[in-house]
Amino acid sequence: MKDLRNYNLLSHNTFGIDVECKRFVSFETTEEVYSFIANRTDTDLPTLVIGEGSNLLFTQNYPATILHSAIKGIETTPCSEGILVRCGSGEHWDDVVDYCVSNGWSGLENMSYIPGTVGASAVQNIGAYGSEAKDVIYRIEAIDLSNGESVTFKNEDCNYSYRKSNFKTIWKGRFFITHVTYLVKKEFQPNVRYGNIKAVLAEKGIEVPTLSQLREVIIEIRKSKLPEPSEEGNAGSFFMNPIVSRSTFEALLAQYPDMPHYFIDEEHEKVPAGWLIEQCGWKGKRLGNAGVHAKQALVLVNKGGASGNEVLTLCNTICNDVQSKFGITIHPEVNIL
After folding, report:
1. Is 246 a catalytic residue?
2. Looking at 121, 132, 163, 310, which residue is catalytic?
């Protein structure tokens, strides 16, 4: 267990914001979590649990204790429905995807190259290209930080929806996730309906991709659109794609016939936030030391030395412009602290 005071978080947030926390505790085992809970004091509160910091924006120093999972390990168990893959919450998400694809197990491949940890996948309900973590999460093991008791959640307990779960709402800050078990399949049915996957496959002369080929194409697409945090600090997609009513969608489509969109149900349609932001003229622009990525308007970037408040100001300005132009409210996907 690492236990550090006045700890700099520059390497623990992919935005590259230079802030500190009062105390930083990193756990490698569940026993270390129990020990911390038994010995903590009021000065540790409120505690904040983080993974790789790939979905965080710090606007100030954190005045208390940050808890970090370094719990590793991957265990597999065959079952009648496929393979149960139990992972430590500190495992890098894409390493788990790579592990499953290498073994010929499907279900995670469309979420290739998403930054972050296994624990964060269960909190955030990460997703990409028509797949979400909730589609594969089978069981979550956690420790209740309020009383030190162990608890196990089934998928249906977590109230998953688009980029949301009970861990982000009514349970926020209450549980430290130690392990997540995913249910993956031995059979592979490629899902190529979203984004430009089909186009890239066609360029490569691939009609029906293998599991590995689909992962490779998705990684290629993501790398072409998203900057590496080591080059430009960012948290990936900063905004959630808004889901609008059928009447709002039809009115917008009449005005913007080329507007991209994705069917949700008979009453709702999803509109890409990146497209809305680009139509407002923000793609490639900057405000102080914060900017909008030149290749993907959904991504806000640290152009060098940006503070969290500069990024937040840019976020709020973009939200106001989208609301003014389209009458649509967009919300950050990133957790702002």
Report:
1. no
2. 163
Q: Which residue has the tokens 């120093």?
A: 61
CA neighbor of 249 nearest in space, from 233, 264, 228: 264
Q: Which of 216, 237, 269, 307 is catalytic?
A: 237
Q: For the chain, which residues score pLDDT lower than 50?
A: none
pLDDT in tens, 196-236: 898 899 889 898 899 999 999 999 998 888 888 888 899 88
Active site (annotated) includes residue 230? no
pLDDT at 228 (0 to 100): 84
C-alpha 143, offset from chain centre: 22
For every residue of 124-155, DSSP letters joined together read HT-EETTEEGGGTEEEEEEEETTT--EEEEEG
Nearest to 154 by CA among 181, 192, 175: 181
Identify whether 163 is a catalytic site residue: yes
Cα angle 327-330-332, degrees, rounded to a multiple of 5: 165
Q: Are strands 131-132 and 127-128 parallel, antiparallel or unpaired?
A: antiparallel
